[in-house]
Amino acid sequence: MQHILILQTQSPFNQARAREALDLTLALAAVDYQLSVVFMADAVFQLVSPAELHEPPIKPVYKSFGLFGLYDIEQCFVCQQALTQRGLSALPLPPGFQTITPTAITALMRAADQVIRC
Amino acid sequence: MSMTFLTVGDQQLALDKHGYLVQMSDWQPSVAERFAELEQITLTEAHWEVIRFVREFYQEFNTSPAVRMLVKAMAAKFGPEKGSSKYLFMLFPEGPAKQATRLAGLPKPAKCL
Amino acid sequence: MPLLRETTVAHFSLLLTQNPFACQSFDSALQFAKAALAAGYSIEQVFLYEDAVFAAAATIDLPTDERNLAAELAKFCQQQQLPLLYCITAAEKRGVQAANDSLFQAAGLAEFAMRLANSKLVQF
């Protein structure tokens, strides 16, 4: 089975890029790949629970990370350094998500058959 | 753009071009009953169970479940018998994700997920 | 680090995500595709996602002194018989409609994901 690593780098409000990256992730998960997902750079903002707006201008992706479990995406990581740089060290992560160091991300990239940068 | 409507009692509810409610907040059980009537489905408790389930699914994940997701999620909650596409197609012959989400007042699910 | 390691990969998947008018990624992809074929590799798919789906729009109208990178890529794919696919959902969300005789073929992310199994991904 191919191991595909998806690097999420986009903030949740950079046009629709976070949403389309999420759709791509779920489509890949529907095929039998071993997936790892890393939220790094501004993508860590995707994990911040947004204020409950009545009609948000961009559909939030936050709640959809709960689907990862349903899709058997077991390896979900969040870059520790990106959290720290943005003052989010204490951010509660969605169930099944764990922090990862930049060194470990490099190792993941080395081990993966394919890397997709979103 | 032409607008189509669903008539429920004395209310006219706007539909999108795929026949889904424009305003999710317009939904009430009588909306599901009206859709079912138009799509020639006789609603049973088994149908309602799926309709409630997809509404809860949307609440939790902010996404209308596509068929694959629906089957998996149903299996996780109700076991393999109800979590099968055969069972769901029996209830919603035009496609369980497509039809159940319409009856439940949710947006049309994405095609390829 | 070599691009291809362990087993030699003979097939490439090209994923484009940027607007063909606003940047040079379509030209980069075209050059890559030419070089790959010349070197004896094959191309499993050229897939357009996100803003790259604008390339499939039937109504693109450019002055003659600006290159139509979308059309150039499409022509090349047609000549070489390479599958040139675009995500129909991303296109519909942007109001992009292809012509009936379009060289761009409507597809889903599921097709991209399945074709990826036989190939090495390069992003533009």
Number of domains of chain A: 1
- Main β sheet profile of chain C: 5 strands, parallel
Number of helices of chain A: 4
- Ranges of chain A with pLDDT <50 over ≥5 residues? none
Global mean pLDDT of chain C = 91
Would you write up a description of this structure?
Chain A has four helices and five strands; from the N terminus they run E-H-E-H-E-H-E-H-E. Chain A has helices spanning about 15-30, 65-70, 80-85, 100-110, and strands at about 5-10, 35-40, 75-80, 95-100, 115. The mean pLDDT of chain A is about 90. Chain B is mainly alpha-helical and about 110 residues long. Chain B has five helices and two strands, in the order ββααααα. Chain B has helices at about 30-40, 45-60, 65-80, 85-90, 95-105; strands at about 5-10, 10-15. Chain B has a two-stranded antiparallel ribbon. The N and C termini of chain B lie far apart (about 30 Å). Chain C has helices at about 25-40, 70-80, 90-95, 110-115; strands at about 10-15, 40-50, 85, 105, 120-124. Chain C is globular and about 35 Å long.
Q: What's the quick description here?
A:
Chain A is an alpha/beta fold and 118 residues long. Chain A is 29% helix and 21% strand. Chain A starts with a strand and ends with a strand.
Main features:
heterotrimer; B: 113 residues; mainly alpha; Arc Repressor Mutant, subunit A; two-stranded antiparallel sheet; 5 helices; C: 124 residues; alpha/beta; Hypothetical Protein Ychn, Chain: A; five-stranded parallel β-sheet; 5 strands; globular
Write the layout of secondary structure elements.
The complex is a heterotrimer of chains A (118), B (113) and C (124).
Chain A: E1 3-8, H1 17-30, E2 34-39, H2 67-70, E3 75-79, H3 80-85, E4 97-100, H4 102-111, E5 114-117
Parallel strand pairs in A: 1-2, 1-5, 2-3, 3-4
Chain B: E1 4-8, E2 11-15, H1 29-38, H2 45-61, H3 67-78, H4 85-91, H5 96-103
Antiparallel strand pairs in B: 1-2
Chain C: E1 11-16, H1 25-38, E2 42-48, H2 69-80, E3 84-87, H3 88-93, E4 105-107, H4 109-116, E5 120-123
Parallel strand pairs in C: 1-2, 1-5, 2-3, 3-4
Helix pairs in contact in C: 1-2
